[in-house]
Specification:
By secondary structure, this protein is mainly α. Helices cover 92% and strands 0% of the residues. The chain has one domain (2-71).
Length: 72
């Protein structure tokens, strides 16, 4: 489910950029919008991905601690 959501999101972003670059706006404005969009998505998605990795590491550590306690 998560992979489908990411694929859909990326596809929509790419399609939006294709339409942006096919529009009759000045090239400098297109580049500005593209850079703002890239920075915006980085600000939104980077913390989500980093927190997901952090939580996965904590879950792994906790499962290792449980397995270690059961052995002794």
């Amino acid at each position: 489910m998560r992979v489908l959501l990411v694929i859909t999101l990326v596809s929509m972003i790419v399609i939006a950029h294709v339409f942006l670059w096919q529009s009759d706006m000045p090239r400098a404005l297109k580049l500005t919008f593209t850079l703002l969009n890239a920075v915006g998505w980085t600000i939104v998605l980077a913390p989500i991905l980093l927190i997901d990795k952090w939580l996965a590491a904590i879950k792994q550590r906790n499962s290792d601690d449980k397995n270690h306690n059961n052995v002794t």
